[in-house]
Amino acid sequence: MEMAVGFHRTLTPSFSVNPNSRRLSSSPILAKRILGQTLSSPAITKLPLTFRPLTSVRSSIKCSVSEATETQLEIADKKRQLMRRRDIRNIAIVAHVDHGKTTLVDAMLKQAKVFRANQFVQERIMDSNDLERERGITILSKNTSITYKDTKINIIDTPGHSDFGGEVERVLNMVEGVLLVVDSVEGPMPQTRFVLKKALEFGHAVVVVVNKIDRPSARPDFVINSTFELFIELNATDEQCDFQVIYASGIKGKAGLSPENLAEDLGPLFEAIIRCIPGPRIDKDGALQMLVTNIEYDEHKGRIAIGRLHAGVLQRGMDVRVCTSEDACRYARVSELFVYEKFNRVPAETVEAGDICAVCGIDDIQIGETIADKISGRPLPAIRVEEPTVRMAFSINTSPFVGREGKYVTSRNLRDRLYRELERNLAMKVEDGETADTFIVSGRGTLHITILIENMRREGYEFMVGPPKVINKRVDDKLLEPFEIATVEVPEVYMGPVVELLGKRRGQMFDMQGLGAEGTTLLKYKIPTRGLLGLRNAILTASRGTAVLNTIFDSYGPWAGDITTRDQGSLVAFEDGTTTSYALSSSQERGQLFVGPGSDVYKGQIVGIHQRPGDLSLNVCKKKAATNIRSNKEQTVILDTPLVYSLDDCIEYIQEDEMVEVTPSSIRMCKNPKLAKKTSVSFINNPRIDGYSCVWELEICVFLLLYTFFLFRIYM
């Protein structure tokens, strides 16, 4: 077997190891450590490397797949009567969150002359959604394309957060290879493992891009070694383990074959894509087949189906058959056809197999359906994504402020919007609740559902949501709950409180290592999903805002036991009205408040955090009594700054008997009125706390107090 990292073959002398040892032969770094040989890296940098402009041919990059393997693939293609297109490459850029995917795509678009020289281009141009720009993360996968040396490269930018893994799973059906972007300091992270696992299951070629190589604490050798170990753990084939490595700095727009020698552009990266990512395998003369993997909506064109053409030729105005299975098909006509060129959709009359295109004219098209030939077309295998792990209850707004700010407030509006979300979001599920105005929404995580809530409130919806709950399973009469892998980057000085906090939530540490020379420690835990609810704010508080928490679903395991997620109670408004400074001055002694003076509140609204366990009702609307006595000096009231909780913070804060009221202009928390009624009923029916028993207990307390005072007088 050849070397695992492609540039080592062209820049260093040959290093032969026993071919039967897969681990040694595939990783030069591991081979040096285990065999005790010294293979100095400066020898790599001393070799002359001439980097030419972007249009020059770089013959130094050689694909990591051997020639014999390519020959075997060509023979297999001939047997299947398939052919490869040499003028197209379909790739997806996958990575963990904040490892620089979108920034790298920006640099690729600029160097491919997608924009004019005098055109203003904002940062992270692929993050076109307002919510994506506010949060600084990619939520939806997006398509674009560039042209390099007469080869069209279709690029799909994917989300990096684990809650949006469904976006990554479905777009992998459209590509033949992936660029696995890994941070030069952090190395492979939880989402890196997830996306790589999916790419290897599809059999895609992988090009590893070690990004942010210009960081002072960069450790490329460790990152390559860890990435190779991840390939081994995921049972990758020998050809997949023999991956090409490119070192890059996305923000500077540079790439190279070694960390010490970077070109002035991304030429080495483009060359690696052309040589190492195979072209699409197609059946050009076969019946039309196109799997719909994404859907967009345009006010003028309606629903737009996006996918890759697997076989045949698609033409504008063509009659097609839309299939979900062999027995469920319907007929439609393609009114308009688009392909991706540079950063725009360009109309096209004909699209050949292997290219990614957008189809208009099919109003009821759904993700996972196949656009096939009208006569002999057959459906392709449906898209499958992993099951959700967290659910939340959506219901209509029942607070006294209902209808003040929202446009859509009825259960019919809420139901239509939630079920419309299922047309595009495959990883989400919606079910009817116990009542007609309640709906159960299941997703990959709290962030997955929170993004839906934020989009709905910006569209004018007004509703209430309950606390997140995990989805358990029962197998062989055993209760199983979801477990996740949590990685925490925390400075060493705050490691103690963070470890204690994770231990209280049933987390089990299985790895701990230092990150470079920055004094940061990386902790890895296996923890129940229940323990992650409300953990992010607690970790930020324990680490003074310096810790970074990342999670990824691992598996289902036995029930871990009871977990306490919050030790403090809530401060609840006693009556409806407007808050006053006079009332808040005494209320803030009970805890931290969420409201300031002049805010409208209602009975049952949560107005603060109690400093002790249990809830406490307060009158935050009390006014100072007016008298005819003139005071010489007005009393000065000093109020603390109220806490401002975002939507994510509110959802993490609430517990079983609490809800979040979501409106286009406000986010409030309140006690669940249904559970409050049950509590009041149980209070009345409980014989231990009825009126007679309370009087009897009070008499006993008075008697004991008097008896103690009598003894004190006698002996003193």
Topology:
Elements: H1 6-11, H2 22-26, H3 28-35, H4 42-46, H5 67-79, E1 83-84, E2 88-95, H6 101-111, H7 130-135, E3 142-148, E4 151-157, H8 165-171, E5 177-183, H9 190-202, E6 205-211, H10 220-233, H11 238-241, E7 244-249, E8 254-256, H12 267-276, E9 281-282, E10 289-298, E11 302-311, E12 313-315, E13 319-323, E14 329-333, E15 336-341, E16 344-347, E17 350-352, E18 356-360, E19 370-373, E20 390-396, H13 411-421, E21 429-432, E22 438-443, H14 446-458, E23 463-465, E24 469-470, E25 473-475, E26 478-491, H15 495-504, E27 508-515, E28 520-528, H16 529-532, H17 535-542, E29 548-558, E30 570-573, E31 577-578, H18 581-587, E32 591-593, E33 600-601, E34 606-610, E35 616-618, H19 647-653, E36 658-662, E37 667-671, H20 673-685, H21 691-715
Parallel strand pairs: 2-4, 2-5, 5-6, 6-7, 30-35
Antiparallel strand pairs: 1-9, 3-4, 7-8, 10-11, 10-19, 11-18, 12-17, 13-14, 13-19, 15-16, 15-18, 20-22, 20-23, 20-24, 21-22, 23-36, 25-26, 26-28, 26-29, 27-28, 30-34, 31-33, 32-34, 36-37
Helix pairs in contact: 15-17
Q: How many strands appear in the DSSP assignment?
A: 37
> Strand arrangement, largest sheet?
14-13-19-10-11-18-15-16
Count helical runs. Answer: 21
| Terminal CA distance | 94 Å
What fraction of the residues are assigned to beta strands by DSSP?
25-35%
Oligomeric assembly: single chain
Question: Biggest sheet: strands, sense, closure?
Answer: 8 strands, antiparallel
The pLDDT mean sits at 78
